[in-house]
Amino acid sequence: MLQNFSIFKTIFNDAPQPWQLGFQDSAAPGFTGIVELHNTIFFYLVVISVGVFWVLGSIIYYYNSKKSPIVHKYLNHGTLIELIWTITPALILIAIAFPSFRLLYLLDEVISPTITIKVVGHQWYWSYEYSDYVNESGESIEFDSYMLPESDLELGQFRLLDVDNKVIVPVDTHIRLIVTGADVIHSWAVPSLGIKIDAVPGRLNQTSILAERAGTFYGQCSEICGVWHGFMPIAVEAVPVQDYLAWIDSN
Amino acid sequence: MSEDLSSKYILQTAGFDARFPNTNQTRHCFQNYTDYFKCIAAKGEDFAPCKQFKRAYNSLCPNEWIAKWDDQRENGNFPASLEP
Question: Needs which cofactor (chain A) (predicted)?
Fold first, then answer.
């Protein structure tokens, strides 16, 4: 909303960048939660690392045969310090575990979905099925999504990421994904939406996505599945609901 | 035109089912498939409440699975009883 009134427009990062170290920009509440948890834990991780290496460095520096030759005779046991360095890490682990489990179970929840999209992994492409609106003759929307070869790329398209048929999803809509494989195990992953779920033959895995803004989000197969594992990318295009309906209508 | 589309396509899908609360939805699909054919065996193909099962299995099952099970029913080797 702020975007509409601000003179500074944000360009979201929805595809990997060369030498990127951080995350892509979030487009779903789940991924915002994951990044939040990561940042919180990383803060404590840095504090702990500095503390541990400080103590370790001091011990190496001060306690040696030249500086304190007979320290081992007197410094061999201390109940209090041992209690502190046993109980403190336990409390830290508990403090990390609670928000982590909370997030895990929140991500697991499939909140009354409006649309179901079936995702099937093949060697080596993804296919998608939208079967909520089956017409009179029993046909549903069904298409394959192949990577665009380098020779077909137009300016602005991503090498090894863009596909011929993107998955079209409406924004601000709870969508159920049913993910399965047709031959071997694949894994459907889109970082900006915070999704990574295995596509296992003979099993239907369910997850939920909610795109908070329009945009095209990219991902790649994340379970090694054969020679062209690296060449079956995923592209999800989130559009306003009206445009989604128009797309459904045109198919 | 936009008004037409929202009335033409109702955004609706198989809801949450307390029998299948897990990530694994394989049985959710299969149960709806068998329930539909049990339902029409008992009540006839035009019985409207049966349509609910059909919509659910169409939404949940991969089309390839549905085609395979349809073949198995025709050949009489479907691996579950469809007696009501």
Answer: Cu cation
Check: pTM over 0.90? Answer yes or no: no
For A14-56, the pLDDT digits (tens) are 888 889 898 999 999 999 999 999 999 999 899 999 999 999 9
SS3 letters across chain B:
CHHHHHHHCCCCCCCCCCCCCCCECHHHHHHHHHHHHHHHHHHCCCCHHHHHHHHHHHHHCCHHHHHHHHHHHHHCCCCCCCCC
Residues A133 and A240 in one domain: yes
- Whether the CB of A174 is below 8 Å from some CB of chain B: the reply is no
Bridge partners (DSSP) of residue A218 are A235
Q: What is the ipTM of this complex?
A: 0.87
Mutate to test the interface with B, among A126, A133, A177 (most CBs of B within 10 A): A133
Q: Which among B56, B28, B61, B16 has a CA at the least distance from the CA of A111?
A: B16
Report how many domains make up chain A.
2
A204 with B28: Cβ contact below 8 A: yes
Whether residue A249 and residue B5 make contact (CB cut-off 8 A), yes or no, is yes
Each residue's pLDDT tens digit, A105-132 = 998 888 789 999 999 999 999 999 998 8
Pick the CATH number of B24-78 from 2.60.120.200, 2.60.120.260, 1.10.10.140, 1.20.1050.10: 1.10.10.140
